[in-house]
Amino acid sequence: MSTVEKLILAQLASEDAFEEFKQKCKDLRNWHRKFCIEYDTIVPQLLQVHDRMKRSRELEDYFEMDGLLFALRVFNEKALAFSAAGSTDEENFQSRIEEVIAIIKQLRSNFNTIYSKIDLYEDEEEEKNGSDIGEQLEIIVIKMKEMGELMQLFSATEIDILQKKVITAGRAEKKKNSGETLDRISEVLNAEIQQLTEDHESRKRLNYEINDIKTFFLTDLDEQFLKAYRVLSAPAEFYKKLRPKRKQATKGYLRRFQEILSAISSKLIEIEQYLTLFEWEDVEMSHINSRIKIQISSLFRIIAELSPILELGNVDIDPAKTEAFFKAKSTLFEQIINMDVIHEKRDQIIEAIRKRHAIQQRQEETVPNIFR
C-alpha cells in the first residue's frame, strides 16, 4: 500500500476519532445543561429554606432535590467516563475534565450537607436555633460559576475552532505528499473516493442526530414521565391528600414532557430535510418518522386532558386517562428505540482505495524495464 493510501486511511481513522470526541463533548454539554436547569429550578426554594431557617420558621412540607441530585449524578458519570482521545489536545481537555470532576464532588458534598441540615432542623423538637445553609449556598454559587467557565472549553464554538485547525493541518499534510503521488492516481477513482468520503460524513452526522434522540431525549423524557406518573397513578385516597404545590409540580413535569416532545418533533423535521437534501435511495425513514409524529400528537392530546384536572381541587384523576398516558408513552419509546441508524458506507471507501492501489500496481508492472 502506497503512502497516499496509508495517509487516507489514517485520516479517516483520525476523523472518526474526532467525530466521536465531538459527540462526547455534546453529550457532556447536554448533561451539564440539564443539571443547570435543575439547579435554576431549585435555587428559589433553597433561598426560601435559608430565609426561614435564619428566622427560625417552620419549613414548607413539600421540598425535594431528587431531580437535581439525579442530574448531578449522571453528569458526574459522564465526566468520569469522558475521554479526550481524538481531540488532538488531550492533555488540556483531560486536565479540564479533572477540574470539572473535582467541582462536581464539591457540589455533591454541599448539597448533601444542605439535605442533612434541613433534616436536622426539621427534627428539632425544641425551639429552632436560627441555623441556616448560607455557607453552603455561597460555596455552591462560586463553584457553579467556576464549572461554567471550565465547560466553555467543551462548547460547540471551541470544538469548531479546534476542528478547523485539524482540517487545516490535514490539508497541509495532503499537499506535502501530493507531488509524488497524484500523477499515479486515477482521476476517476479520486473523484469516487472524495464523493464516498463526503457521503460517509453526511451519513455519520445523520446517525449522530438519530442517536441523540434515542439516548439524551429519551432519558430526559422518561425522567419527567416518572415524576408525573407517581402522582397521576396515585390511589384516589392518596391523591385527595396531596397539597396543591405537589399537583402544581406535577403539572410542571407534564409541561417539561411536552417541551421534550416538541424538541423530538423538531429533530425529526431536521432529519427529513437532511434526507430530502441528499436523496439517498437506500434510506427510507418517512414511515417511522410519521408514526412517531402521530404518536407525539396523541400524547399532546392526552396531556391536554390531564393538566387541567390537576388544578381542580375535588376532581380525581380518571385512571383510564392515566393508563392511556402510560400506553402512549410506551408506544413512543418503542418506536424511537426501533429507529435504525443508516449504513455509513465506510466499507465502500476502503474498497475504492484498494482498487486504486491495484491500478497503481498494474501501472508499475507495465512500465518498460529500461525505465526501472
Key descriptive features of the protein:
disordered C terminus; 2 domains; mainly alpha; 79% helix; 372 residues
Description of the molecule:
- The chain has helices at 3-54, 66-81, 90-123, 134-151, 156-178, 187-232, 236-241, 244-278, 286-309, 319-337, 346-365.
- It is built from eleven helices and no strands.
- Residues 177-183 and 366-372 have low confidence and may be disordered.
- It is mostly helical and 372 residues long.
- Helix 3 (90-123) packs antiparallel against helix 4.
- The protein folds into two domains: 1-183, no CATH class; 185-372, no CATH class.
Task: Give a brief outline of the structure.
This protein is mainly alpha-helical. It is 79% helix and 0% strand.
What's the overall geometry?
Answer: flat
Rg over C-alpha atoms, rounded to the nearest angstrom: 28 Å
> Count of helical segments?
11
Q: What is the SS-derived class?
A: mainly alpha
Strand proportion = under 5%
* Mean model confidence by pLDDT: 78
Low-confidence stretches: 177-183, 366-372
Determine the fraction of residues in helical runs and give it as a percent range: over 70%
Helix-strand topology string: HHHHHHHHHHH
Number of domains: 2
N- to C-terminal separation?
A: 19 Å
The total beta strand count reads 0
Biggest sheet features = none
SSE blueprint and pairings:
Layout: H1 3-54, H2 66-81, H3 90-123, H4 134-151, H5 156-178, H6 187-232, H7 236-241, H8 244-278, H9 286-309, H10 319-337, H11 346-365
